[in-house]
Amino acid sequence: MESNLITFFVGIIAVCMVIITIVVVQVSFEVRKSINQFNECMAYVQAELKFLSVKMALTLNEVHDVVLKISSGIAKVTLGSLLIGTVSKIFKKKSN
User: How far apart are CA 20 and CA 27, in angstroms?
Assistant: First the structure.
């Protein structure tokens, strides 16, 4: 009787071990699939960030060019107004 009881408990333990092994294998497959999805998502995010950074760099270059043109125009207007002021003073001195 005792050996039958031990055999029964060993059988229950073996069945539990098989069930636990199946669960561990199933969980590892799900984790692997989740990791692959995460990696795909990260690759997509990296590609989008790279695209955005390139666009931002191009936009900054365009803004830089516009700012240079504006500052150049301001410098020309300033020089022109200084020149007009100087010419005006010269003519005022000549007319006096």
Answer: 10
Give the single-character DSSP code of 20.
H
Question: What do you get for the CA distance between the two ends of the chain, in Å?
Answer: 138
Q: Which two tokens stand for residue 8?
A: 């029964």
pLDDT tens-digit readout, 74-91: 999 999 898 898 888 888
Task: Quote the CA–CA distance of 87 and 94 in Å, as a whole number.
Answer: 11
- The pTM score is 0.56
Q: How far apart are CA 89 and CA 92, in angstroms?
A: 5
Under DSSP, is residue 1 helix (H, G, I), strand (E, B) or coil?
coil
For every residue of 35-83, DSSP letters joined together read HHHHHHHHHHHHHHHHHHHHHHHHHHHHHHHHHHHHHHHHHHHHHHHHH
pLDDT in tens, 27-78: 999 999 999 999 999 999 999 999 999 999 999 999 999 999 999 999 999 9
